[in-house]
Amino acid sequence: MSHLLETFPNRSLLYVAQEQSPNARTEYASVLVSVLPSNLIPPVITYNSNTGYIFENSSVGARVYTDAAASTTLLKLAFTDPETSSSDLPVQFTTTVSAGQPFAVTQEGYIVLNSSVLDYEATTKYVLTVTVTKTTSPWYSATVTVTVNVLNVNDNSPVILVPDNYSVTVTAGNYTTAAPWVIVTVQAADIDFGPPQFKLNRVVPANATSKFSVSQNGSLSVTGSLSPGDVYAVYVTASDLGKPVRR
């Protein structure tokens, strides 16, 4: 027969085997039982995409999307503990994002903007290191890298380059047959959606409008007859290629 002789909790068991006879002999056997502490496995991070998109100038709290139009599917991380089952209580995690980044991760796994500093002209993308940590000792953690692309918004108007006021002298004469006679080329720049496109806005006096024209690249031309002593104010508008159009 055999019976439990002594127990050392979580450490070892000592068994005795003894014959049932007048000259009973006894043999001993020990069994070492090692009880491993729980929470030795890091959490597991999954996601529907590790590349996201968000528009510049978004307000604080705006979320990151997986599609390049930043309008359809939200980027979402999921955190699980491989040591638990569906019948266990939910495991709590803490989430952090690498220092200096204007983003945070919610408990639900969404990436949100926590600082309204997004400017496409300054930074076009952010590479985030997201760390997920168990809230119980020994606080194992896991990391994942997520790239967030900033989408451009047409928030800058074209700028007429210096000089923005031109003074041009033209010899009197009839420029109809030689039209177009370029007298000056206006230059502009746009940091969002260029190159700027030019068009004639107005001429003062208004009855002289037909005497001038401007090409899309900013070349201002005389297309009519000019008399000695005439003075004209010609206004040219530069527009960008964005939506909505900015001037």
UniProtKB/TrEMBL annotation:
State the Pfam families in the record: Cadherin
- On whether Transmembrane is a keyword of this UniProt record, the answer is yes
Name under which the protein is recorded: Cadherin domain-containing protein
Q: Which GO terms describe its cellular component?
A: plasma membrane
Fetch the PROSITE patterns from UniProt: CADHERIN_2 (PS50268)
Query: Per the annotation, which location comes first and is thus the protein's main one?
Result: membrane
Protein's GO biological process: homophilic cell adhesion via plasma membrane adhesion molecules
